[in-house]
From TrEMBL:
Gene3D superfamilies: 3.30.230.10, P-loop containing nucleotide triphosphate hydrolases (3.40.50.300)
Database matches in InterPro entries: AAA+_ATPase, CHLI-like, MCM_dom, Mg_chelat-rel, Mg_chelat-rel_C, Mg_chelatse_chII-like_cat_dom, P-loop_NTPase, Ribosomal_Su5_D2-typ_SF
Name the UniProt record assigns to this protein: AAA+ ATPase domain-containing protein
Keyword terms of this UniProt record: ATP-binding, Nucleotide-binding
GO-annotated molecular function: ATP binding; DNA binding
Transmembrane segments: none
UniProt family annotation: Belongs to the Mg-chelatase subunits D/I family. ComM subfamily.
All residue ranges annotated as the AAA+ ATPase domain in the record: 212-395
A family per Pfam: ChlI
Length: 508
């Protein structure tokens, strides 16, 4: 009877949990079983491990091998247990000569049949766990070294082959390495504001939305540049702070979406899911409880193009992240909460054909079609959108003349300045932007003169301005004042803010 134990990690949402891999090798009919709520990808580990051990020149005992993954009540998914399982078997059956496997090492990696170690998802959060648990070493696939190097205070042992690791263990010396990570703040985009002709007021609205983190809905006929405007937003957003980079990179590491050759995400994400995207794809969850688009857009932009085409139920699910900055998804064993603090940018045509109210082209929709289309956006969701603008057809004469380059760089500098003012002002409370302000802080931080206040209150009485709308206007006015580098909110700031809220032309 032989026994072995090594340490590994499991992913639970976007967190890593320390996991013990145990092996029991005892007489009986030869067999190989993995227990401990192992999902399909983990169950298949036994075939990969068997192949890898054989091809690396090790003998697998012709006995009954049982692998247990503890804690046994957590569902295990992923291929990263392979390496720990292989080392565990080798240590139990004496495959590693004279070696005592140290218990302050975490082993992560997928094995291919020839014994090569492949990269896996979620190494960044596992490295963070290893560091929090005060482990001495993390053995990991060479492919994931750069990403893990973001975590300080843990010795990284990158390997390419199983055999290489066995030799190190036999020699009693793990070779550590660290990759240097260059963080570039260069904006890499094919878009620039200078490529957009006309649409000055839309550009101004996007500048304000980006500066304060406000949500924005653009409505207008097709071909006026709504999609183009939205795709240009990443060029005017400030680069992420160090903490934000880590937060966002973790999400991309766990979902396996880190771009190749890029260890860290430095720019705000921009996600634009198609309207046919499923509910799970958008909000997350499903059998593997993985994060959805709202989480991938964390600290960045979620762009819903032609928003009325999305399923109503899916749009309703956006209410929680819009309000709280997180999304809760349920799975069989309970619920998981993912971060989902994003700026919602949406576009919409006025009707299915897009020409309702167009002076040049007649709308071909029936009244029922129009009502149905506009009703897709429920009142409560629309009420959570801070700014609404109309993107009108622009004068084609604007195409004359050369484009002035670098407009996005200029705007980004202004937006960054305004964001820094906010960060400083809100250092003591849990907010980064004006949009983040919670009700108890709004009136204190967004003070307006008494006469203007009375004007706003009268507008509330006379129009459909809701209480939530009142607070939104204060926050937007605060952002406009910040862009103006004005400590006080002035009348002109407030009136401009009002124009983005009380947009009757939207007709929705
Ligand atoms: N304001 C503009 N300046 C320059 N090109 C534009 C503008 N608006 C639209 N275009 C051109 O028309 C194309 C379609 O615009 P798009 O953003 O998709 O419009 P919409 O989303 O409003 O239907 C763009 O890719 C671009 O080539
Ligand atoms: Mg479009």
């Amino acid at each position: 009877m032989k026994y072995g134990k090594v340490l590994c990690a499991s992913l639970n949402g976007i967190d890593a949990i320390l996991t013990e891999v145990e092996v029991d090798i005892s007489g009986g009919l030869p067999g190989f079983a993995v227990v401990g709520m192992a999902g399909k990808s983990v169950g298949e580990a036994k075939d990969r491990v068997r192949g890898a051990l054989k091809h690396s020149g090790f003998k697998i005992p012709a006995e009954r091998i049982t692998i247990n993954l503890a804690p046994a009540d957590l569902k295990k998914e992923g291929t990263h247990y392979d390496l720990a399982i292989a080392i565990c078997i080798l240590s139990a059956c004496g495959g590693i000569e004279n070696a005592i496997i140290p218990q302050d090492v975490m082993f992560i990696g997928e094995l291919s049949l020839n014994g090569k170690v492949r990269g896996v998802k979620g190494v960044l959060v596992m490295a963070e766990l290893a560091q929090n648990m005060k482990m001495k070493y993390l053995v990991l696939p060479k492919q994931n070294l750069r990403e893990a190097s973001l975590i300080q205070g843990i010795n990284l042992v990158p390997i390419e082959y199983l055999k290489e690791l066995v030799l190190m263990l036999e020699a009693g010396k793990l070779l550590t390495q660290k990759a240097s990570i260059k963080i570039t703040h260069k904006i890499d985009s094919e878009y620039d504001f200078s490529l957009i002709r006309g649409q000055e007021s839309a550009k101004r609205a996007l500048t304000i939305a980006s500066a304060g983190g406000h949500n924005l809905l653009m409505s207008g006929p097709p071909g006026t540049g709504k999609t183009l405007l939205a795709r240009t937003i990443p060029t005017i957003l400030p680069t992420l702070s160090k903490e934000e980079m880590l937060e966002v990179t973790k999400i991309y590491s766990v979902t396996g979406k880190l771009p190749k050759n890029q260890a860290v995400i430095t720019q705000s994400p921009f996600r634009s899911p198609h309207h046919t995207a499923s509910h799970v794809a958008l909000v997350g969850g499903g059998s593997s409880a993985s994060p959805g688009e709202v989480t991938l857009a964390h600290r960045g932009v979620l762009f819903l193009d032609e928003i009325p085409e999305f399923h109503r139920q899916t749009l309703e699910a956006l209410r929680q992240p819009l309000e709280d900055g997180v999304i809760t998804v349920s799975r069989a064993s309970g619920t998981l909460t993912f971060p989902a603090k994003f700026m919602l940018i949406a576009s919409s045509n006025p009707c299915p054909c897009g020409y309702l109210g167009d002076p040049k082209k007649e709308c071909s929709c029936t009244p029922m079609q129009i009502i149905h289309y506009q009703k897709k956006l429920s009142g409560p969701l629309l009420d959570r959108i801070d700014m609404k603008i109309v993107v009108e057809r622009f004068d084609t004469k604007k195409f004359a003349g050369k484009v002035a380059e670098g407009e996005s760089d200029e705007i980004r500098a202004k937006v960054t300045k305004a964001r820094n003012i906010q960060r400083k002002r809100y250092a003591k409370i849990k907010a980064m932007t004006n949009a983040d302000l919670k009700i108890k802080n709004i009136e204190g931080y967004c003070q307006i003169p008494e006469t203007e206040k009375m004007y706003l209150i009268r507008s509330m009485e006379n129009s459909n301005l809701s209480a939530r709308g009142y607070h939104k206007i204060l926050k937007i006015a605060r952002t406009i004042a910040d862009l103006d580098q004005s400590e006080k909110i002035k009348q002109k700031h407030l009136f401009e803010a009002l124009s983005y809220y009380d947009n009757q032309a939207l007709n929705m």
